Amino acid sequence: MKNWRMEAIILAVGMLLLGVFIKNGFSEFAQKDRSVNVKGLAEMEVPADKVTWPLVYKSLGNDLGALYDDIKRSNQTILEFLKEKGLAETEISVNAPEIIDLKAERYSNNNDTPYRYNVTSVITVTSMKVDLVRKLISEQGELLKRGIAITGGDYRYNVSYEYTSLNKIKPGMIEEATKNAREAAEKFAKDSESELGKIRHASQGQFSISDRDANTPYIKKVRVVTTIEYSLED
C-alpha cells in the first residue's frame, strides 16, 4: 500500500519551493527592469584660437593692363601693412581677382557707367594670432592713407573665428557632464526611496561650438550632453 501521506508532504514542499522560486524570479525581474535615464550638461566659454580675415577692395577702369598694374601695387601695399603689424607671410594669401565686364552684363543697368571693368580683389589672413588680427581690423583705416579703401558688406567675405582645440577640453567636459548626470540620478533615486545602481547604458552626445552671441563671435560656447541610464535598487 502506498504511503500517500509522505507523497502529499513531498508535493506540498515542492509546491512551496516552487512558489518561493517564482516569487524571487518575479522580484529579480522587476528589480532588473527598474532604471532611470538622465542627461548631464556641460558648457564652457573659450576664446577663439583661429581667425580668417578677408580684406576686400575694388578697382574700376577700362584698361585691363592698367588695372592689373594697379592691383599689383595695391596688393603689395596691403602685404607690407600686414607684415609691419606682425603677421607672417605664411599667414597671408592673395586670391585671384574677380573681374566683371559691366558692358557685357546683359540685364544690368550699367550702360551709363564710364567704366567697363569692375575688379574685386581679396587678400585673406588666416592666423592663430586672434588678438593681433582683431587689433588690425580696427586699424585697417590706416590703409586709406596709403590709397586703399577696404570694403565690407559682402556676406561672402565676413571675418570668421574658430576654436580648434576641442580635444584639450573634451575629457574635462565629459567628466563634468557625467557628474551632473549622476547627481540628477541620485536625486531621482532618493525621491523614489531607491538606491542608485550601476550604469546600464551611456552615450555621449556630439560637441557643439557656437558664438557666445552676435556681438562677440571671437568668444565661443562649447556644449556637450551625455545620456546615462542607471539601474535602481531597493
UniProtKB/TrEMBL annotation:
Q: Looking at the record's lineage, which domain of life comes first?
A: Bacteria
Q: Which PANTHER family match?
A: SLR1258 PROTEIN (PTHR34387)
Query: What protein name does the entry list?
Result: SIMPL domain-containing protein
